[in-house]
Amino acid sequence: MVGVEDDAITVDVAGRRGARKGDVVELWRPLVLRHPVTRKPVRDRYPIGAVRLHHVGDNLARIVDISTLERAPEPGDIVVLRRAPAKSTGGNTGTWRPGPVPASAAAAATPHDSSSSTAGAAESARAKPPCRSGPAKKCPACPSKGSPEANEALLVAELFESLRGASLVKRVNRYEGWVRRYPQSSYAVVLYEEAAMLRELAKLHDRHPDEDDGKPQVSLASFVPPEEALVDRPLTLSLQLDGVPKAVILHLRTVGQPSFETLLMKPTGRGYYSVTLPAKRIEEPAMELFVEATTGDGEAHALTGGVDAPIRIDIRTVPEPERWQPPRATVTLWTDYADYNRFRGNDAAWQTEGYFGMRFGDIGVRALRSGFGVYRGVGGTLEDLDENELSARRVGLTYGYLEGEFGFHELFSLTARPVVGLGDGGITGGALTMVRIGNDLGTNLQIGGEFLGTVGVRAIAQFELNVLEDWPMMLRSEVTNQPGGSAVSTDDVRPDDEDALAEMTSTGTNDIGVRGIAQVGYRIADSFVVAVRGSYQGRTINHSGPGFGGAISYSW
């Protein structure tokens, strides 16, 4: 049936199929159910009534009276022609006469033989088929004492009886062979339609009509697993099959586990199956899997991979996006007093320095700092101070600087500081250079040197220890000739003793001395640190003394 309109229906059983006005056709409703045990589709049909053809064309026929039907007709219902036999003009019993070959029957006559054609089917229709029924049972083309309808029914009954317990493929071949042999029989259209439906059913089991082994075939059409997946993220796997399996099973395990976990893949479309692995099942370092299909015969067929050669999917950690961190600002102030001669007051220095800095990152311009300093001291040569008992001279410098730290690696950086200051002789300059090994936010070592005009030079080695989170520590050593690291003339000298004359003041360069400094800080809050320091320095065993100092630092 091809259409339903109001109280009339249109069917494709028409003149070219041998139908005439007034012929009775039966309407059958196709039915497809899934067997609850085997899970295989079961196809059948049941009658919903019989009606007569009212308007018959070459390709379509129209039925206007459908009041006798048990159910409302629907497009797709099967139409079976029950044509009334032609009446003889001589009053004798009617005989079966060949009619035009139905197009469907002619097409079915050669489903697998390319040498056959519609013309060949028509030729076989005109040929007299041999009788295989014996004296009592004649074929439709043979003379018989019984009616032609009875002879046809006997042949069809024999056909059905011979196919008891036969497979789908065998039934298709026998039905189509019967249609090729008797294309003008009134049963030809029905048997052809039955063969066509069985052929469609056979395709669902992925079998070729020439095969008659009764075993369903399932094969993999497409499956492209990912090479890697992200940990703790759901993963959906899908594949396409040729054939209809009973079940598709995914076997899965994390690399290192002894056994596989079994998951059932669900159908998501005709031939498509998929399964979604939950996020908690995606674990590092990798997954191994293989897929099998079970068929109606109870056998498992490998589709891809296997126990000994599973498919591997690498699992990697989700990369965390780097968060933008605003520059870290720091304000620091420190002071340090160093006595080189047992508190005699003739060889000592007091330095105070403060700066504001911004830290940007580990690589490139790591930090920029701007600061100031005040340096005050007294000094002279050991000979003038200890043997000649001359007055020490005063040394002073007030300075400012701009410092940059440049990171070449997370654990390696270079610090450079130009200095401009005002000393006793006017404007002067200086510089500081340090190499840092390690990160400034952790434990690190700095090595470098400093020059301050009129004050002197010093070599520095500083070790910052940040093992205890709340107790930052520092150890520092210096080799220096400060505070009197430069020689001066009697015209520029400022005696430390107010009663001393320039000729009674040391004007030579300080001797080299060493310093050892230890500083311990305490983190009061995450961003606020206070520290105290102690030191000992000297130029000789007899020319030495202690020192002390402190620092505060605040970061945000």
Describe what you observe in this structure.
- The chain is mainly beta and 556 residues long.
- The protein folds into three domains: 96-214, no CATH class; 219-316, Immunoglobulins (Immunoglobulin-like, Sandwich); 328-555, Porin, CATH 2.40.160.40.
- The protein is 12% helix and 44% strand.
- The strands form four sheets. Strands 17-18-19-20-21-22-23-24-25-26-27-28 form a twelve-stranded antiparallel β-barrel. Strands 8, 9, 10, 11, 12, 13, 14, 15 and 16 form a nine-stranded mixed β-sheet that branches. Strands 1-2-6-5 form a four-stranded antiparallel β-sheet, with no helix packed on it.
Could you outline the blueprint of secondary structure elements for this entry?
Layout: E1 3-5, E2 8-11, E3 24-34, E4 41-52, E5 55-56, E6 61-63, E7 78-82, H1 103-108, H2 118-126, H3 148-162, H4 168-181, H5 188-204, E8 219-222, E9 228-230, E10 235-242, E11 247-254, E12 261-269, E13 272-277, E14 286-294, E15 300-304, E16 311-316, E17 328-339, E18 348-359, E19 364-379, H6 382-387, E20 393-409, E21 412-423, E22 426-438, E23 444-452, E24 456-465, E25 473-480, E26 513-525, E27 528-538, E28 544-555
Parallel strand pairs: 9-16
Antiparallel strand pairs: 1-2, 2-6, 3-4, 3-7, 5-6, 8-10, 10-13, 11-12, 11-14, 12-13, 14-15, 14-16, 17-18, 17-28, 18-19, 19-20, 20-21, 21-22, 22-23, 23-24, 24-25, 25-26, 26-27, 27-28
Helix pairs in contact: 4-5
